[in-house]
């Protein structure tokens, strides 16, 4: 492979150095045509070769799926950034136990799909909220205050617990703004 690459580079440089192909030495033209054929043959072989399939180690996947526990752990870590490591580990442990339970064999794939959809939705919302300007976040906090007043006292207490614990799926600066709005009421 390296030998072909070196020859390809050499002949490419020769191609680049030829100012007028018609006036080039016939030997150089012959070498250039050989180089071109070699490069084309190598490209054709590379394109024709099947790409290696990434087959998961079936001893590491959840039975009946092609999902490895490490993929779920990574999805949780990437999607729930607002949670602590311990909280993300707790989510993984709970999900892993449910997926490993033989009683859930029939719904294992649906469970993974449902969880992945929710996790990606949370990640997309996090990204969108993080991209908001401070002014947009203040407007959102104003809407939050209006909605907060419409909640029952029990729901307000529950929401306050979520805000204080940082469990709402919002960036930390927005959580602080919502918490300040909540505490100021």
H-E order: HHHHHHHH
Sheet having the most strands: none
Q: Roughly what percent helix?
A: over 70%
Radius of gyration: 30 Å
Please identify the structural class as seen in this structure: mainly alpha
Chain-averaged pLDDT: 81
Task: Identify low-pLDDT runs.
Answer: 18-22
Proportion of residues in β-strands: under 5%
Gap between N and C termini? 70 Å
Count of extended strands: 0
- Helical region count? 8
The general outline is elongated
Summarize the structure.
The protein has 185 residues and is mainly alpha-helical. Helix content is 72%, strand content 0%.
Written overview of the protein:
There is one protein chain. The chain has 185 residues and is an all-alpha fold. The chain has helices spanning 2-17, 26-48, 69-79, 85-100, 108-131, 134-150, 153-165, 172-184. The chain is elongated, with a radius of gyration of 30 Å. It starts with a helix and ends with a helix. The relative contact order is 0.07. Residues 18-22 have low confidence and may be disordered.
Relevant terms:
single chain; 185 residues; mainly alpha; 0% strand
List the SSEs and their pairings.
Layout: H1 2-17, H2 26-48, H3 69-79, H4 85-100, H5 108-131, H6 134-150, H7 153-165, H8 172-184
Helix pairs in contact: 1-2, 3-4, 3-5, 6-8
């Amino acid at each position: 492979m390296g030998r072909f690459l070196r020859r390809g580079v050499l002949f490419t440089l020769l191609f680049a150095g030829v100012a007028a192909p018609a006036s080039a030495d016939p030997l150089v033209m012959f070498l250039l045509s050989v180089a071109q054929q070699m490069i084309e043959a190598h490209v054709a072989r590379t394109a024709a070769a099947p790409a290696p399939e990434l087959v998961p180690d079936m001893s590491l996947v959840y039975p009946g799926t092609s999902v490895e526990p490490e993929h779920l752990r990574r999805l949780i870590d990437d999607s729930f950034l607002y949670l602590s490591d311990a909280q993300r580990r707790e989510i993984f442990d709970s999900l892993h136990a449910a997926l490993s339970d033989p009683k859930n064999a029939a719904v294992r794939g649906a469970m993974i799909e449902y969880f992945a959809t929710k996790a990606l939705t949370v990640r997309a919302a996090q990204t969108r909220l993080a991209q908001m300007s401070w002014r947009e976040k203040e407007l959102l906090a104003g809407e939050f205050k209006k909605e907060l007043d419409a909640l029952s006292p029990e729901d307000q207490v529950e929401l306050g617990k979520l805000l204080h614990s940082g469990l709402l799926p919002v960036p930390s600066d927005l959580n602080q703004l919502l918490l300040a709005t909540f505490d100021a009421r």
